[in-house]
UniProtKB/TrEMBL annotation:
Residues 2-155 form the Glycosyltransferase 2-like domain. The lineage of its organism: Bacteria, Bacillati, Actinomycetota, Actinomycetes, Streptosporangiales. One of its GO terms (molecular function) is transferase activity. Belongs to the glycosyltransferase 2 family. Keywords: Transferase. SUPFAM superfamilies: Nucleotide-diphospho-sugar transferases. This is Glycosyltransferase involved in cell wall biosynthesis. It comes from the Bacteria. It comes from Thermomonospora cellulosilytica.
Length: 238
């Protein structure tokens, strides 16, 4: 699942590398650079959803709701996340985990993109999240995530911006999901400029994790239960 906004040049690198997936869902924020056309030219089978740009979180929620495969991977469109790492995420899902998050600080992980300021902010936010939620995460603000489709409803996501990455993590804890981290190497954005604002989005992440910590139990949706087959009608002979 890929949210996009004017990422045509990056998709020319990314889309040919998505060969071993059953479904590609792209949620586009009304791009003006031919993003949708590029995606369809390379992968005509991609499912494209175009909606007004309301933020990364809003796009991700739309894409997760539209996905039909049992296992879902969230991927940034800028080429910083390598599809060659899919197997590492999927292996942990197949071992029974519900929610697998990438970490740039694990053994084998790294980042060519994090500035010193962003790395410091991420480490501080991660430490606070671990304190608030009793976890041992090494990387909170990284959107390379895989999960089971049946976990999407249980996350009860509401965020519209970059803070959705934090909301996914903390709500996975609140929902009692089985969580794992896997090392990932982030490269620099290949083309264009990021929409991330260090201070604005860091503040939104902080508010999200604190608010949810004291929001009370996460209300879980009712499980989908198929209606029972009706009993056969009895005849007088029976």
């Amino acid at each position: 699942m890929i949210p996009t906004l004017n990422e045509a040049d990056n998709l020319r690198w990314l889309m040919p590398r998505l060969t071993a997936v059953d479904e590609i869902v792209i949620v586009d924020g009304q791009s003006t650079d031919g993003t949708v056309e590029v995606a369809l030219a390379i992968r005509p089978d991609a499912k494209i959803i175009v909606e007004p740009p309301a933020g990364k979180g809003a796009a991700m929620r739309t894409g997760m709701a539209a996905a039909t495969c049992d296992l879902i991977i969230m991927l940034d469109a800028d080429g910083s996340m390598d599809p060659a790492e899919f197997d590492s995420f999927l292996a942990l899902l197949c071992r029974g985990f519900d929610f697998v998050k990438g970490t740039r600080y694990g053994c084998g992980g790294g980042s060519d993109d994090l500035t010193g300021l962003r790395s410091l902010g991420n480490r501080m936010l991660t430490r606070l999240a671990n304190l608030l939620y009793g976890q041992h995460w090494s990387d909170l603000c990284y959107g390379y995530v895989a999960m089971r489709r049946d976990a999407v409803r249980r996350l009860c996501l509401r965020s519209t911006g970059f803070e959705i990455e934090t909301e996914m993590c903390v709500n996975a804890v609140r929902a009692g999901l089985r969580i794992a981290e896997v090392p990932s190497h982030e490269t620099e954005r290949r083309y264009g400029q990021s929409n991330l604002n260090t201070f604005r989005d860091g503040w939104r992440v902080l508010k999200t994790m604190v608010r949810l910590r004291f929001a009370g139990p996460l209300e879980q949706p009712e499980p989908d239960v198929a209606p029972a087959d009706p009993l056969p009608a009895l005849t007088s002979a029976e």
